[in-house]
């Protein structure tokens, strides 16, 4: 996959799968959100992306004369689902996929905020499918990044949204983001036999099983690091971030702090850490 393909240009990836790159690059979206068009005569759009007129125009042009049977969303962050509404209005296609979810968080978010206007015509549960030209597109529930996150399997390809990204680890932001759920969802993917992952950000993952094991190992290593830091003396999250992420890009401190908090809350539930007046300590 070409990471810097021109914005708005339909790029064929393999038979029946193409992508459009939205013009919303950032420290959290990499080169932008990748919208995928799946199918041949009858197609679905997966993660239509931000409500940017040029991107919506490009999606309509990419569908062309084919029947758009579904507009599919993995989750409801604003870099993924808002274009579903104008695309549905212009094509008449139903919005299908994750459940509605919009939360207000205290302070600025490190990633995209929720799409409060998302209103699906149909919500898919784990294992439910829709027919795309005779081939099922099947929901795989993967909570963790958000509680409503779904991946979608089409043949031996898996569209992973933000659960697994090809360029960075996934942000897990409490209270909705949950580290235990995220790890369980990774383990669920590890047990599958997908050939390739197509994330919403970054290049395709061509070694899925190995990559998922790497992601799980990275998170377990981070957990051990956090436990060591709070085992020496009580620490606040900014101190833990400074110790765990030396040389971190200042733009990513909020995301790192959220990830640390997600780990700490999971450790607290397991009886391995506790907090008093915003100072965390290891309990054993």
From TrEMBL:
Query: Which keywords does this Swiss-Prot/TrEMBL entry list?
Result: Hydrolase
Source organism superkingdom: Bacteria
Annotated InterPro entries: LACTB2_WH (IPR041516), Metallo-B-lactamas (IPR001279), RibonucZ/Hydroxyglut_hydro (IPR036866), Sec-metab_biosynth-thioest (IPR050662), WH-like_DNA-bd_sf (IPR036388)
Q: Name one GO molecular function term.
A: hydrolase activity
What the entry lists under CDD domains is as follows:
metallo-hydrolase-like_MBL-fold (cd16278)
UniProt domain Metallo-beta-lactamase: residue ranges: 32-201
Identification of the protein by name = MBL fold metallo-hydrolase
Q: Which organism is it from?
A: Sphingomonas sabuli
Source lineage: Bacteria, Pseudomonadati, Pseudomonadota, Alphaproteobacteria, Sphingomonadales
């Amino acid at each position: 996959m070409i990471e810097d393909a021109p914005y708005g240009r339909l790029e064929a990836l393999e038979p029946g799968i193409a992508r459009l790159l939205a013009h919303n690059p950032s420290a959290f979206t990499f080169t932008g959100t990748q919208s995928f068009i799946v199918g041949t005569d009858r197609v679905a759009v997966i993660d239509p992306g931000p409500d940017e007129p040029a991107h919506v125009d490009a999606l309509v042009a990419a569908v062309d004369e084919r029947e758009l049977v579904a507009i599919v969303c993995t989750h409801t962050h604003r870099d993924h689902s808002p274009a579903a509404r104008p695309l549905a209005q212009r094509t008449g296609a139903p919005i299908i996929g994750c459940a509605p979810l919009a939360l207000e968080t205290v302070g600025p978010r490190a990633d995209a905020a929720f799409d409060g206007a998302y209103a699906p015509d149909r919500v898919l549960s784990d294992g439910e499918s829709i027919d795309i030209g005779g081939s099922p597109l099947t929901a795989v529930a993967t909570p963790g990044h958000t509680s409503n996150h779904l991946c979608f399997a089409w043949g031996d390809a898996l569209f992973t949204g933000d659960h697994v990204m090809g360029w960075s680890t996934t942000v897990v932001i409490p209270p909705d983001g949950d580290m235990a759920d995220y790890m369980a969802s990774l383990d669920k993917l590890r047990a599958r036999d997908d050939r390739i992952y197509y994330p919403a950000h970054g290049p395709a993952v061509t070694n899925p099983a190995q990559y998922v094991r790497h992601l799980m190992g990275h998170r377990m290593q981070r957990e051990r690091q956090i436990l060591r830091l709070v085992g020496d003396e009580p620490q606040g999250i900014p101190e833990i971030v400074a110790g765990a992420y030396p040389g971190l890009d200042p733009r990513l401190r909020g995301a790192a702090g959220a990830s640390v908090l997600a780990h700490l809350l999971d450790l607290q539930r397991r009886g391995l850490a506790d907090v008093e007046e915003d100072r965390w300590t290891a309990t054993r």
